[in-house]
Amino acid sequence: MTTSTGSADLRDQLRALPKVSLHDHLDGSLRPSTLVELAAKVGHELPVTDPEELAQRFAANAASGSLEKYLEAFAHTTAVMQTAENLRRVAREYVEDLAADGVIYAEVRWAPEQHQEQGLSLDEAVEAVQAGLNEGAEAVAAADGIIVVGQLISAMRQSDRADEIVELALRHRDKGVVGFDIAGPEAGFPPSKFAAAFTRLAEQMLPATVHAGEGDGLESVRDALVSGRAQRLGHGVRVAEDIRITTGEDSRSKTADEGEELIEVELGPVARWVRDRQIHLEVSPTSNVQTGAIAGFAAEGEEPALADHPFDMLYQLGFNVGVNTDNRLVSGVTLTGELALLAETFGYGLAELADFQANALEASFLGYEEREALAGVILEAWNA
């Protein structure tokens, strides 16, 4: 398979192909126009009130290298997501926007505990989001489209409500909730702190993905696997810190051709476990650059760029990687755009980009029969 030439042509081609999104935060993916409208309605002050300028401000903050500026947007988005009506609208538009970008399966993560400032119960918040997701899916189906969306209920590490949020997820597991997640600051809040909650999930056989290897290093990944029993890793890119690569004549083997440099790769125990057991990495390329998750892979003294991302190394070494947006509004990205950037940066063709969709679908928390049905749709389109 080949890609069309030219960045715009590639994006048009990719937008029309069915895609899978596993790591996308609801409160980071509002329409700018909706945020402006709802902020005026609830009396929340925004830095600017023109939707285009607001989106540009958030994107500039995200690209500034300051995590504080990156996170500024969430104070505004969560402020307008405190009623059932607003949650329902945001969720409906979320589905419609994903479908417009060619996504046919998505898992949306969000933390209901952050949406109780105006009296909503946890269950009411989850029900409102599910109603919006259902309305969005129905609108897409009415336009002859296909999209399936499941909720991932996140507990915020710093608020110490994981046990309560696990029970919330379990109450709604047959009503749209497909899994559990923990989010928030990794450093100081390891999954081991919530071991009882993860044990409860395992006993009830509700799957979990864990943010790890983004804001903290290798021990964060290890603990997500051990204490969090994670089936997937949210970002997980710093697992690459457990990979040692040597090059040069000193490492030349007797079988190497003359003039050919031998590259030796040594995987540490955590990286080997993740690779050998095909633990899926929910990678968000642009966000990983913006939040500093890949700063350690850039040359000393240099600002990290997408070319420094270990994504391609992980893929070439056989890790199970997928591509995600993390926060579409905050980072100013789409899934189509992220795939195109990877293709342009690492020289991928459609065959590689199709691999990432297959990886994500196989790692999704859908049932086997549903995965098989969607796999047929994806494979047929990407192979056409």
Automatic annotation (TrEMBL):
Enzyme group, top EC level? hydrolase
- Keywords annotated in UniProt: Hydrolase, Metal-binding, Zinc
Task: List the Gene Ontology MF annotations in alphabetical order.
Answer: hydrolase activity
Superkingdom of the organism of origin: Bacteria
Reported cofactor(s): Zn(2+)
Keyword Transferase, does the record have it?
Answer: no
Q: What is its EC number?
A: 3.5.4.4
Name the protein family.
Belongs to the metallo-dependent hydrolases superfamily. Adenosine and AMP deaminases family.
- Which organism does this record belong to? Nesterenkonia flava
Traced from the root, the source organism's taxonomic lineage reads: Bacteria, Bacillati, Actinomycetota, Actinomycetes, Micrococcales
Enumerate the spans annotated as Adenosine deaminase domain: 18-378
What is the protein's given name?
adenosine deaminase
The family database entries (InterPro entries) matched by this protein are listed as:
A_deaminase_dom, Ado/ade_deaminase, Metal_Hydrolase
